[in-house]
UniProtKB/TrEMBL annotation:
InterPro entries: BetI_C, Homeodomain-like_sf, HTH-type_TetR-like_transc_reg, HTH_TetR, Tet_transcr_reg_TetR-rel_C_sf. It comes from the Bacteria. PANTHER family: HTH-TYPE TRANSCRIPTIONAL REGULATOR BETI, HTH-TYPE TRANSCRIPTIONAL REGULATOR RUTR. Coiled coil: none annotated. Keywords: DNA-binding, Repressor, Transcription, Transcription regulation. Gene3D superfamilies: Tetracycline Repressor, domain 2. Residues 31-50 bind DNA. The keyword Transcription applies. This is TetR/AcrR family transcriptional regulator. Residues 8-68 form the HTH tetR-type domain.
Amino acid sequence: MPKVIDHDQRRREIVEVAKKLIIEGGFEAATMRSIVTAAGFANGALKHYFPSKDSIIAATFESVLQETSQRMSELDPSLGPLESLRGFVEAAIPMDAHQIASARVLLVLWEHSVANPDLALQYRDLLTSWRAELTSRIAAARGKGESVDAPAIGVLADEIIAVSIGANVTSLMHPVGKVAGRYRAYVDGLMARIGD
């Protein structure tokens, strides 16, 4: 009886291998040959799952973005608006070793997306949906009946996005977890401002 292969699982395995190679050696380390070798596949086997390195990179980018989205979606629905916002912000800021490793992958892929319009569009779409979700959560947390389009709400959302992206870069310049306390202090201060 022929072996049944779970193609989606194989794709996920390939993406995990690409992530690991990027974390360890940057974008250049994730060649088709190195991915095949690290995944333990025969030469040419990747073509059954991904037609090119760019398609693997796009899937890797999507995987990292989905991890962040999943952390955000797993927040306790019984939380009040301010604590729900806190959890949403903390999910985007690298506080632990896994989030910091993901930040390394994102940094590499952000650079690659400058020359890859599909990746750039993918990230812009994420930023657009992220900002929309933030404005909704900020308006609810402020509890003043403001529209999500109110200028003050947009300014706060843009600040959070900028700080989160900056934190992803900064976390890579320090030992793992070294600056997590600063990020927690920022989130505490942010919640105090929003809750007033």
